[in-house]
Amino acid sequence: MRVTVFGTGYVGLVTGTCLAEVGNHVVCVDIDQAKVEGLNRGVIPIYEPGLEPMVRANHGAGRLEFTTDAAAAIAHGDTIFIAVGTPPDEDGSADLQYVLAVARSIGEHLSRPAVVVNKSTVPVGTADKVRATISAALAARGADVAFEVASNPEFLKEGAAVNDCMRPDRIIIGSRSARAVEQLRRLYAPFNRSHDRVVVMDERSAELTKYAANAMLATKISFMNEMANIAERVGADIEMVRHGIGSDPRIGYHFIYPGPGYGGSCFPKDVQALERIARQHDYPARILAAVEAVNDAQKGKLFELISRHFGGDVSGKTFAVWGLAFKPNTDDMREAPSRTLLAQLWAAGARVRAHDPEAMDEAARIFGERGDLVFCDSPDAAVEGADALVLVTEWKAFNSPDFQAMARRLAGRVVFDGRNLFSPDAVEEAGLAYYGIGRGRTLRHD
Ligand code: UDX
């Protein structure tokens, strides 16, 4: 089938590449000339496991093209995906200007029937706006071309996006049009083999499904972080509690890891946007507001533990920071808890020696040259001479350090474990103090 994808960010690039991988002819279009030229040379603008070889192979085979030419791309596709960004505007609502600009462009150039599919995360009711925008642009040029609109939200996790795309849990198709549903079913058939994962619904339900999924997941995390804060105060260990509750199948073990707060490009933005949507419909979404407030506070948790340990004064101290990306297997630092921590450390006059397996270039881009930040080639190098180690992101490479060797490298005697990754006993056996998230045993260091 012939597919056009607007937007070569995470969602568009991964979706386009996976659709090419199963034999479709895909044209990806982006307004960023440099990005398109790079992609045509096989340069992938993001770090995503498995994506680069797949892009190169499909590009080489002629099934995957990148262009800035919207008119040619619109002429190509029977199915046209909109996968451009919906960044938050000043009040936290999703900004639809890019989505609607694409819709206008489709209306200006469409010359034969197509199914227009919205993959960006958009407020409920956007499918109607996309439809109206395309219709208006068609009418303005006196064209009468049949088109359908569908809402087909993505559920890709960064770091596992290719796998999530090739082996989805569910494929949500929101459309009033039987033809659109049929066309998308055929397009997704290669990803839908063992049992039917397609859920067909109306557009608005599909749009809300995406927000509801992310809000539910964010809620699980904020709930666990709240439990961790209670555990810390009452002298319980949240890791025991996590095991204890996860064994109930109604609760489950997934996504109940306490930490330094959720980050990334989706949860913070989507929770906020859904709150705004609710408010616009005169409903105060109390749970969503609390999820956000708990997360904002949690991002300051590591600094709070650090500050308490050092008696409120960290000026002149040096902190080894392991992990800058908002989660492992990505170089993405959007809304990363590390950013809050670094800002707080710097504001308090401390210095940072940081290591991240993938995100150091991104960090250098964000923070620029500064005297109180040194990037280190290895986890060991970061620890050298530091007053403390702070683990922020749970990369596999940080899983089982040699704490005896670490104790010799560190100038100070303390480890702050933002992901409860380490065994407190192993850390303490090496003569280091251990702080985790919600581990009441840390009370004895008070
Ligand atoms: C998320 C959703 O998982 C995905 O379905 C959606 O399409 C886009 O948003 P992503 O942002 O890539 O994907 O990251 P995810 O792996 O879900 O993690 C989000 C954040 O939650 C990270 O900061 C992570 O560290 C944090 N997290 C996750 C926890 O703190 N505890 C957990 O138990 C799980």
From TrEMBL:
GO BP terms, alphabetized: polysaccharide biosynthetic process; UDP-glucuronate biosynthetic process
Cytoplasm listed as a keyword: no
Record-listed NAD(+) binding positions: 30, 35, 86, 121, 158, 269, 334
Catalytic activity: UDP-alpha-D-glucose + 2 NAD(+) + H2O = UDP-alpha-D-glucuronate + 2 NADH + 3 H(+)
Active site feature: 266 (nucleophile)
GO molecular function: NAD binding; UDP-glucose 6-dehydrogenase activity
Pathway(s) annotated for this protein in UniProt: Nucleotide-sugar biosynthesis; UDP-alpha-D-glucuronate biosynthesis; UDP-alpha-D-glucuronate from UDP-alpha-D-glucose: step 1/1
InterPro entries documented for this protein: 6-PGluconate_DH-like_C_sf (IPR008927), NAD(P)-bd_dom_sf (IPR036291), UDP-Glc/GDP-Man (IPR017476), UDP-Glc/GDP-Man_DH_C (IPR014027), UDP-Glc/GDP-Man_DH_C_sf (IPR036220), UDP-Glc/GDP-Man_DH_dimer (IPR014026), UDP-Glc/GDP-Man_DH_N (IPR001732), UDPglc_DH_bac (IPR028357)
Binding, substrate: 155-158, 210, 255-259, 263, 327
Pfam families per the UniProt record, alphabetical: UDPG_MGDP_dh (PF00984), UDPG_MGDP_dh_C (PF03720), UDPG_MGDP_dh_N (PF03721)
EC number: 1.1.1.22
All residue ranges annotated as the UDP-glucose/GDP-mannose dehydrogenase C-terminal domain in the record: 320-424
Keywords, sorted A to Z: NAD, Oxidoreductase
Domain of life where this protein originates: Bacteria
Transmembrane domains' residue ranges: none
Family listed: Belongs to the UDP-glucose/GDP-mannose dehydrogenase family.
Record's function text: Catalyzes the conversion of UDP-glucose into UDP-glucuronate, one of the precursors of teichuronic acid.
Name of the protein this chain belongs to: UDP-glucose 6-dehydrogenase
Taxonomic placement: Bacteria, Pseudomonadati, Pseudomonadota, Gammaproteobacteria, Lysobacterales
